[in-house]
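FAQ: What does a ligand-bound record look like?

Like this one, built around flavin-adenine dinucleotide:
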Amino acid sequence: MSVLIFIDQSEGHVKKSSLEAMSYGAKIAEQLGTTAEGVVLGSSADDLTALGKYGVKKIHHINDTILNQLDGQLYTKVIAQVVEKTGATVVVFSNNMDGKAIAPRLSARLKAGLVSGAVALPDIGNGFTVKKNVFSGKAFANISVSTPVKIISLNANAYKIVEGEGTAEVAAFSATIDAPKIKVASTSKASGEVPLTEAEIVVSAGRGLKGPENWGMVEDLAKILHAATACSRPVADAHWRPHNEHVGQTGFAIAPNLYIAIGISGAIQHLAGVNRSKVIVVINKDPEAPFFKAADYGIVGDAFEVVPKMTDAIKKLKGVA
Ligand SMILES: Cc1cc2nc3c(=O)[nH]c(=O)nc-3n(C[C@H](O)[C@H](O)[C@H](O)COP(=O)(O)OP(=O)(O)OC[C@H]3O[C@@H](n4cnc5c(N)ncnc54)[C@H](O)[C@@H]3O)c2cc1C
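The answer part, i.e. the structure of the complex:
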C-alpha cells in the first residue's frame, strides 16, 4: 500500500503542477499511514532526489527516451506496471493535458475508480470520498470511491505546494515498453514567453479589442508582468489570436494567481475556464458586464485608455523605462 504520484515534465523539467500533486499525494499518504512515491517517465534534466522536499520518499524512474514525448497509451501501460509492482492503492495525477490523457485509460485498465478535477483532500473518515468541481465550477460533488485502487486527478491551484526537507531515493524501474503506435513528426511551440497553463499571471482579451491589430497593448502589459496571453473564444474563432490562447469551457482551463480580463463580457462559458484564478481583474467599458460579478477588482473604462496607462504605471513601479 502506498500513494503513487505521476510527476510530469515539460522538456525534461518537472512541472509546477507536479509539485502540487506531490504535496497533495504526500498528505494523503500521511492520512493513510503510508508513504508517497513518485513515477517519472523519460529523461529528466532535474535533480529528482531533490523532489523529496515535496514529501515523496522514492521515485521510480523509467529513463527511456521513447517516453520523452507524451503517448497516452504507452504511459498508461508503463504506469500500470509501476502500480502493480509497488501495490499502490492511490494514484495521483495533475488534472492537465497529461493527466487527462493517462488517468482515464489507467482507470479502465486497472478497473480503478477515478475522480477527475479534485479540489480537496479525500475524506477517509468513512470510506474514501473526494470533492470535485462539477457544472463548469458552478457546484461541487463528493464522490465516494470503493475500488481497491483509487485514482485522483488534482485541479491546478487546488492544493498549496508544501516544501519541507529531505531527499527522495531514485530507483530505475525496469518496465516493458511497447513499440509506440504513434510517431510525433514535429512539434511547434506556442508563441509567448510563458506557457499559458503554467502561468502565474495571465493577460487575456476579448472582442472588446475590435481587431487583431490592437493586441500590441495586451502583449506589452503581459511582457512587463511576465505573463502569458489568452483570449476569449470568438477572438480565436475569428483568427485574431491562435486557438492555443483560447480559454473557457471549450478551451484551456487555467488557474493563475492573477487573471486580467480586458474587453471580455464574462459569459458563463468563458468563466468556466478561468474562475479558479486566485485574483480576477476586469477591465470593461460596460459597468453591467457580467464579468464584474466574478471580479476581485474591476475597472470601468475604455481598454484603449486604461491598458496603456496600467502598463506605464507598472513600468514606473518596476523602474523600467
Ligand atoms: C457551447 C459553447 C461553448 C463556448 N465556449 C467558450 C469558451 O470556451 N470560451 C469563451 O470565451 N467563450 C465561449 N463561448 C462563447 C461565449 O458564450 C461568449 O460568446 C464569448 O465568451 C464572448 O466573448 P467576448 O467576451 O470576447 O465578446 P463579447 O461578448 O462581444 O464581449 C465584449 C466585451 O467587451 C466590452 N468592450 C467593448 N469595447 C470595449 C472597450 N473599448 N474597452 C473595454 N471593454 C470593451 C463590451 O462591453 C463587452 O462586455 C461558448 C459558447 C457556447 C455556446
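Follow-up question: can I read anything off the structure? Yes, for example: The longest helix spans residues 16-32.
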